[in-house]
Structure formats: structure tokens, C-alpha cells
């Protein structure tokens, strides 16, 4: 038996961190303060979508349910979620639906996820068995104060099954380093075994049953849930250190999960600040870091399902009408780019090393690891000119591999002409990443210009 959707105050109450960036003297100024607050509240994709949905509803967007019929009106603002970890928000045009300005991002970040039977004992300690989610940079996870967050499904005494968010916002675990005295060669390079060397310590003298007991206690404190049975969970460890502005001029933003919550924040700001005259779509998919092949990932049908339903009501009906809409539209896929690192300048092509605070980065790859082509790149350069922001270009070295984004996948699934851009950052896939505080505003302004642009071609 399924429950009603959890109330909004229950979700929001579960998200508030103990220390907010507003209380942290190291985080101030705009838009960096808002960026930091946003990322601090996003320990998992489910929390990310809950916060985004809350902000959208506060701005007058109406929540849709994929299981119900939709009644849409020109000029309306709506959104829909799938798996509680992916979201599509739409500003419907006031006039006839002829084109859409799509902004894409992803809600997930590399990290450590708990295994289903996570509790394990060693040397008098209860530990948590973990598996790697995505391409985690492992070494920075050592000696960090770790909290726990994610989604838990419970069965209440009346048989009702409910999914709720869990946010343990204090340090409850740590992965201690091995002392250099016991491994004198550690600084000469040592492979890390994720199975045996990454499980965090959790409770001294604890038994395996203590994990279940603690989860139930936390659910009671956060949600008032008592007498329930935990059926399953999707939980992740995260660094509880709050975001900060770093540097003499506070020119840097340091935080967990900037890849790619920074793009989610920027895309949401651009949507909310758009003038409402054009059709605008914000899609934030889960599972990008593991290939996007899921029902709510970019390779899945989520975005296409939503756009087909919208077109059926407000556009030219039929498959031909849908294709015409997609070909008249454009997508800007936003995912952070590799900034030139001052200690590793040789890792970049000499002519394509983006600088922090140098503006958004157009990402190019001849082998289609990025979806950018000269036509979509020209559009973005013109948007940056219009918004008065600088623009940069990234191409990986010819002797190195290249990552990818939701851009090529979405372009393949929908056929929409697409561009890959991103804010430059350091330490991608680390537990704490660094970006330029000015670049947040630069990309936001460019995307607002995109959202308001009357003609795309």
C-alpha cells in the first residue's frame, strides 16, 4: 500500500543543515552566498530535487504528476519529477509553442554510497561498507568529517509504504589515514583499495544491529516516524564542512559537489529570472556520473516524455509537429569544465586552458564527447556578447582522453541541436572542489539572455 506524497514541510524540515552559510562568516556576498547555501543543502540528488521543487513552487510553478492527465495553458510555469532525483521545469510560452530554450544539468556527484548490508565489524569498530558511485577521487576522502544522507523507504504499522529523506547533518563517521610510520612509501604513490581501505569507522564497540537502530532513531527525530520498519535505503556519505569563499578577494568558491550542483543552481536562477516571454526548459537528470542509462537519466525517456505531452497540448500535434519543435529548439548542456591548474599546466593544451573567473567555457571535442558544433558555439558566443560576459574554450590535449556530459546523450535521444558549456573548476570529482566566484554570475547572465532570446536561428 502506497502513502500520500510526503508533506512539503516534512521534506523541507529534513534539509536544513545545522550551520547555514548565512551563519558562516566566510560565506558572504551575492551570488556566491546563494550558491553556497544551495550546495550546502544538496547532499544527495534527492535533496537537490526537493530543494529545487520547493524553490519552483515558491516562484509560482505548478507541480505535475506523470501518472495524471495534464491540462496546460500558454504562459504557465510547471515542473515534474521522476524518481525524486530528476526534474524538468518549464516556462511555457505565452504565444504558440514553436521553439524551446533548454538548459540541462545533472543532480548527482561522485561519492561513496552505502551497500545494502553496510554494517561490518573490524578491530572493535562498527564500520560502513561502501561502493563507489561514479569516478571518485578517493584520496581526499580520508580524514574528513562525514555525515549521512539519502532516501529511506519505510513500512508503517498500518502497512503504508513511504519514501522519506534522511539528512544526518553532523559528523558521524571518518575514514582515517594510515600513519606514515606504517607506510613509509605512501608519498611515492600507493593504489587505494576501495573494498578494504575506504570503509569509514562509525561506532566503537557497535554491533551490526546498531545501524538499523540509529536509522530508525534519526527518522523519528527528523520526521516523527515511530514504529516503522525500514524496507530499503539509498544512502551516501558526504563532507559536513560548509562551503566557503576562499582567497584574499574571496574570488574562489570551495564546496562539495560543485560538479554539478553549481550548474543546477545557475540553470534554476536563469529560469526564475527569465522574463517569461519564451518557452524555457530546465532539465536536471540523475545518474550522469554513471552513464545516464536509467529511467530518469539523460539516456532515458524522461525529457522526451515530458516534451511530447507538452507539444500534444500546446504545439503542432503528431510526430511531425514534435520533430519540428525539437529542430527549432536549442539546448545548452551545463557541466563544469577543467580549469587550468597552476601546479599542473602541462595537463592542458597550451591554447585551451580556461581560467577561473574568466567566464563560461565552451567545451569542444571532435569525437563528439561534447555536443558542441560551430553553429551552437556561435549562438553561445553571441549570447555572451549580448550579456556582456567573457567566454572561453576548452579542448582536451590530443594525447589524453576526454570526459562527457548529458549534452551528447540528450542530443542523441532528442535530436536537438546542443552546446556543452560549464563554469571552470579545479579538483573535479574530489570531496571538495573549487570554482571562481565571478563565473557564477557570468554564466547566469548568459543563460538569462538565452532564455529571453526571441530568435534562436
UniProtKB/TrEMBL annotation:
One of the protein's GO biological processes: proteolysis
Keyword field: Aminopeptidase, Hydrolase, Metal-binding, Metalloprotease, Protease, Zinc
Cofactors named for this entry: Zn(2+)
Residues passing through the membrane, by range: none
EC main group: hydrolase
One of the record's GO molecular function terms: zinc ion binding
Pfam family, one: Peptidase_M18
The organism's place on the tree of life at top rank: Bacteria
InterPro entries cross-referenced by the UniProt entry: Peptidase_M18 (IPR001948), Peptidase_M18_dom2 (IPR023358)
GO CC term (a single one): cytoplasm
EC number, UniProt record: 3.4.11.-
Family statement drawn from the similarity comment of this UniProt entry: Belongs to the peptidase M18 family.
Name of this chain's protein: M18 family aminopeptidase
Protein's organism: Billgrantia tianxiuensis
The organism's taxonomic lineage, starting at the top: Bacteria, Pseudomonadati, Pseudomonadota, Gammaproteobacteria, Oceanospirillales
Amino acid at each position: 500500500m502506497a502513502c500520500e506524497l510526503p508533506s512539503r514541510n516534512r521534506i523541507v524540515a529534513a534539509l536544513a543543515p545545522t550551520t547555514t552559510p548565512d551563519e558562516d562568516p566566510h560565506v558572504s556576498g551575492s551570488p556566491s552566498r546563494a550558491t553556497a547555501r544551495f550546495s550546502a543543502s544538496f547532499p544527495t540528488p534527492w535533496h537537490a530535487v526537493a530543494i529545487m521543487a520547493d524553490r519552483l513552487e515558491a516562484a509560482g510553478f505548478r507541480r505535475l504528476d506523470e501518472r495524471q492527465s495534464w491540462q496546460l495553458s500558454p504562459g504557465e510555469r510547471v515542473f515534474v519529477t521522476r524518481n525524486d532525483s530528476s526534474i524538468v521545469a518549464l516556462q511555457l510560452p505565452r504565444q504558440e509553442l514553436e521553439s524551446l530554450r533548454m538548459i540541462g544539468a545533472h543532480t548527482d556527484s561522485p561519492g561513496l554510497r552505502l551497500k545494502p548490508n553496510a554494517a561490518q565489524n573490524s578491530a572493535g569498530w562498527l564500520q560502513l561498507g561502501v561502493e563507489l558511485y561514479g569516478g571518485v577521487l578517493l584520496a581526499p576522502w580520508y580524514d574528513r568529517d562525514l555525515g549521512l544522507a539519502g532516501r529511506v523507504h519505510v513500512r508503517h504499522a498500518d502497512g503504508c509504504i513511504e519514501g522519506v529523506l534522511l539528512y544526518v547533518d553532523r559528523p558521524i563517521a571518518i575514514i582515517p589515514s594510515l600513519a606514515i610510520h606504517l607506510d613509509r612509501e605512501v608519498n611515492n604513490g600507493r593504489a587505494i583499495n576501495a573494498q578494504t581501505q575506504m570503509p569509514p569507522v562509525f561506532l566503537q564497540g557497535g554491533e551490526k544491529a546498531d545501524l538499523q537502530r540509529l536509522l530508525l532513531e534519526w527518522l523519528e527525530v527528523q520526521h516523527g516516524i515511530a514504529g516503522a520498519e525500514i524496507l530499503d535505503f539509498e544512502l551516501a556519505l558526504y563532507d559536513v564542512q560548509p562551503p566557503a569563499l576562499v582567497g584574499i578577494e574571496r574570488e574562489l568558491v570551495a564546496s562539495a559537489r560543485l560538479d554539478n550542483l553549481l550548474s543546477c543552481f545557475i540553470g534554476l536562477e536563469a529560469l526564475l529570472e527569465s522574463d517569461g516571454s519564451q518557452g524555457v526548459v530546465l532539465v536536471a537528470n540523475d545518474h550522469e556520473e554513471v552513464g545516464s542509462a536509467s529511467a530518469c537519466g539523460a539516456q532515458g525517456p524522461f525529457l522526451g516524455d515530458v516534451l511530447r505531452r507538452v507539444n500534444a497540448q500546446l504545439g503542432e500535434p503528431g510526430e511531425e509537429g514534435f520533430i519540428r519543435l525539437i529542430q527549432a529548439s536549442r539546448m545548452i548542456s551545463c557541466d563544469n569544465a577543467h580549469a587550468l591548474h597552476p601546479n599542473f599546466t602541462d595537463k592542458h593544451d597550451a591554447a585551451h586552458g580556461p581560467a577561473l573567473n574568466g567566464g563560461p567555457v565552451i567545451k569542444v571535442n571532435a569525437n563528439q564527447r561534447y555536443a558542441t558544433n560551430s553553429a551552437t558555439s556561435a549562438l553561445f558566443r553571441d549570447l555572451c556578447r549580448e550579456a556582456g560576459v567573457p567566454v572561453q574554450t576548452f579542448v582536451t590535449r590530443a594525447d589524453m582522453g576526454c570526459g562527457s556530459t548529458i549534452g551528447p546523450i540528450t542530443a542523441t535521444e532528442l535530436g536537438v541541436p546542443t552546446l556543452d558549456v560549464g563554469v571552470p573548476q579545479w579538483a573535479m570529482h574530489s570531496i571538495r572542489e573549487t570554482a571562481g566566484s565571478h563565473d557564477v554570475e557570468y554564466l547566469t547572465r548568459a543563460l538569462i539572455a538565452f532564455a529571453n532570446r526571441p530568435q534562436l536561428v
